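Lab meeting prep.
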Amino acid sequence: MQIIRRLAVVLAMVGAIALQAQPGHTQEGSTWQAIQDRGSLRIGATQAPPWYYKDPQSGAWSGLGISVGKAMAETLGVELEVVETTWGNAIAALQADKIDTMFVLDATPERAMAVDFPAAPLLYYALAVITNDDLDVATWEDLNKEGITIAVTQGTTIDAYVTQHCPNAEILRFPTNSENVAAFQSGRADAASLFHPPLIALQKKMGRGKIVIPTPIRASASSAAVRREADKTWRDWVSTALAYYYDTNQTQVWYDEFLVAFGVDPLTVPPIRKELW
C-alpha cells in the first residue's frame, strides 16, 4: 500500500507539471508583479509600419506601438524590452510568457478564447481606398459608377462591403492583399480598397495616389492583447493607460510623429481617432 501511495503522489506531480507546460495554461503569478520584479516591460513587435518599424541599418525600432510601450514603461519606472515576433505568433508568445503585451492586435472571439483584451481601444481604422489623384471620391457612391474599377481582396470583409455599396462598379477580386494593391499600382484598377493604415506604406512606395475613407464609414477598433491570468491588475492598467492616451489625443500625436519621420505628411492620410474623420 505504501508503494501504491507513493506511486500516486508521483503520478499526480507528473500530471501537474504536464498541465503547466501546456501552451494554453494560465501561469500562476501576476504579470504586473513580474514587470516590477524584472524591471522591464516586454512588448511584441513586427515589421509593419506605421505600427512597428525596424530600421534596417541601425536596428532601432519606432512606430506607434513602440511609442505606446515607451510611455507605459516610463510610467511604470521600468525599461522597455522589444521582442520581435509576428502577428501569427503573438498569441503563442503571450501564452509562453515571452512578451507582456502586443499592441494593435484586434480583439476577435477566437483570440479572446486564448488571451485577454483591455476594455479601451488603442485606435480606430476604417475601410479606405487609394485612388488616382484626379479621381474625386468622398463617398462610396462616388465609386459606384460604370467605368470605375475597384480592386479588393477576395472573400474578406472588404470584398463584402465594397460589393454591397458599389454594385455598378467593376470589382476585381484577388486572393491576397499584395495582388489587390498591385492591380492599382499597375493601372488595372482605378482604386484599391483596404483598411487604411497599410495603404500608407504603399502610397509612399508609389509616390502617388490619395487615401480616402469614403462614407458611410466602415470602422473597426484595434486593441492590445495581454496574457490571461487570475490577477487582472495588468489588463485593467493597460486599459486605463490606452484610454488616457486616446482621450488626450496623445495616440494621434505619436502616430503623426512617426508618419513625419517615415516621410509621410499626416495631412495626406486619415487619422486613427474616429472623432477626427
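Slide two material, second protein:
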Amino acid sequence: MLVSLLKRKMDALENVSLEGVKRIILVLSGKGGVGKSTVTTQLALTAQQKGLRVGVLDIDLCGPSIPRMLAVNGQEVHQHDQGWLPVYTDNTQTLGVMSIGFLLGNQDDPVVWRGPKKTAMIRQFLTDVSWRELDLLVVDTPPGTSDEHIAVMEALKGVAVDGAILVTTPQAVAVGDVRRELTFCKKTNLKVIGIIENMSGYVCPNCSECTNIFSSGGGKALAEHSKVPFLGSIPIEPKLAAAAENGANFVTMFADSEAAKRFSTIFRAILPDSGMDTS
C-alpha cells in the first residue's frame, strides 16, 4: 500500500492543501524519549477542549506513536476527491489525525527507508491530506535534525507557520540537544514559540507532592540564555503516563491534576490571541 501511494503524482508545493488551516505549529525535540509526542497529543486535546478544531500530523515516520495515544490505532485512511481524509477521534470531528501508522499493514512493521523515500512521504502528507477547516494544525516531528525536518521546511515554503515548540527534559544532556534545535530553527528562519520542560519533577499519586527527581530548571535557563519564551514545565504524573498508554483523554478525565492545569497554561501562552475561549 505504501509503495503505491508514494508512486502517485505529487502536486506542486504551492498547492499544499493547508488553505483552510489557520495556524500551524511544529513540535521539535533534540533527542528521543523526552515526551515530545505526549506533549503534542495533550496540547491538541487541550486545544480541542477549548473549542478549537484541531489536526495532528504525525511525521515521526520511524516512531508513529500518536495514533495509540489518541486511541485511533488500527484505523484506516480513506480518500476522496480532495485527498486523504484524516482519522477523527470522535463523532464531533474536531480532532483529526494523520500518521504513517495508519498505512502500515502491521503496527509492528518497521519503516526502514532511506532519506529520499521519507522525504517523499512527508511531502505527500503535507500536500494530500484534506484537513478542511482547522483552527490549529500541530505537527509532531522526529527527534533531532534530519532530512525529515528539511523536507517539512521546504514543503511549507509559502505557507504561514506560527513557529516551533521545543520540548526538553531538565537534564543537561537533553538541554544540550535543544541548543542544536535552536540553531536549526535559526538557520531555517523558523520562529521559536518557546521551550517546554517535560518530566520536571514527579507528582506523588498519594499526596500530590512534586519532587524534582531529574533536577529542574534546565529548560527555563536555556530559554533565558537563548532569549526565547519559556512556556512552562510539565511534571511526571502517573495518570498522564497511563492515559498516553491507553489512549485516554487525560486533560478531560483529570482536569484538576497539576499536569492538566499546566497544559492549559501553556496553551494560553502559545495562542494568546487565538480568538477562542481559553478560560
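Talking points for slide two:
DSSP finds ten helices and eleven strands in the chain.
Residues 1-15 have pLDDT under 50 and may be disordered.
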